[in-house]
Amino acid sequence: MLWKAERIGHGVRAIEDVDLVAFLAGNDIPLEVCPHSNVCLGICESLETHPFPRLLRKGLTLIVGSDDPTLFNATLTDDLVKLAESYDLDVAAVDDLTLNGVRHSFLPSYRKLALVEEFEREMATLRGVHF
Hints:
The protein has helices at 18-26, 35-40, 52-57, 69-72, 76-87, 91-103, 109-130; strands spanning 31-33, 62-64. By secondary structure, the protein is mainly alpha-helical.
């Protein structure tokens, strides 16, 4: 495959192709996943059957998105909370999912680095206050 993709939107069905999963993981090409939207649209029967944990176990970089918060009445925070509760994700895993969105954004590198540093400072502050 000679892709130039930097990330793949709505990539949950990638799990159906072992070679594709290996390629994506080996080339650090992240998949955007929108769990609540996937359930609402019937792509997955329920959050429990969503391929999210299998994709994560296969070593793929995942970016959680809310897809269309107004249409599906769910924010990015809602999606992250549901994933954390459903799959017993710890704070570090949720932080990493959040940072993946910044790390693999289409911003210039200097801006991504600054945002990652800012997010990490805020996350450390929140951990100190709440955990």
